[in-house]
Amino acid sequence: MELNHASEELRDQRLAACSVCPALSEHTCRHCGCFVRFRASLQDKRCPLGKW
Ligand code: SF4
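# iron/sulfur cluster complex -> structure
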């Protein structure tokens, strides 16, 4: 399976949103259960709350 990676800029914008989000628990999102650094690095993923 080929995965499309987000640009570093996009990934960093997403992680900035996660970093101030109350749903972030350590490195994991409470809504999707994902390790956010991984989820944010994939182009086609979205924040489950629509923040990115
Ligand atoms: S993916 Fe969305 S809901 Fe989850 S921590 Fe990041 S900004 Fe918050």
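# post-check
The CA atoms of residues 15 and 37 lie 7 Å apart.
The chain has a mean pLDDT of 96.
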